[in-house]
Design goal:
Layout (H helix, E strand, L loop, with lengths): L4 H7 L4 E4 L11 E4 L3 E5 L12 E5 L5 E3 L5 E11 L3 E6 L1 H4 L3 E2 L12 E10 L3 E3 L4 E8 L31
Antiparallel strand pairs: 1-6, 2-11, 3-4, 3-6, 5-10, 6-9, 7-11, 8-9
Amino acid sequence: MILSGQEIKKHMGKEIIIEPFDEKRINPNSYNLSLAGELLVYDNHVLDMKEPNPVSRIIIPEDGFLLEPNRLYLGRTNEYTSTSRYVPMLEGRSSTGRLGLFIHVTAGFGDIGFSGYWTLEIFCVQPVRIYPNVEICQIYYHDIDGEYELYKSGKYQNNTGIQPSLMYKDFEK
C-alpha cells in the first residue's frame, strides 16, 4: 500500500522525516523533492566497477546549466529524508520526464531506516537546461508486511552530499 499525501503529513516528524519540509509540496500520494545546486560527472569515458572512478563537480548557476545528452550526471536532493517504518521510493516527476529528462535511472528503491540525501542519477535524451532548487522528483512511501530490520549501515547511509558509485567496495569483501 502506498501512503497518501495526508498520511505522509500525519507521520511527518515521527516515522517520516523530510527536512526542510514544505506542506505545499505534498501531492495526493507523494512529496516533491528539489535539486541541490551542484552536480558530479565522471571524468573517465570508461568506468570500472572495481575501482573508484574520479569525478568533477559542477555548480549549477541561477540562470541554469545545459545538460548534454548521453552523459550521466549525479545530483542530490536539497532535502534530507529518513524513515523508520515505511519503504521510501523515488521517481522523477512527470513534468521532467516529458522533457526527456530521467531523474532516477535505476536505484529508486530505498530501505526502511535509510537516512540521508538522495543521489539522483540524471540523464537526458536531448539538451535540457536545469536550475538549482527546482522540484525535480518525488518521494513516496510503501507500507511493509512482516518483520523487518532497519537499514543501519551501508555505503550510502547518513551521506551528506552527492555519492558516486561505491560499488568497488563490494569487491573488497
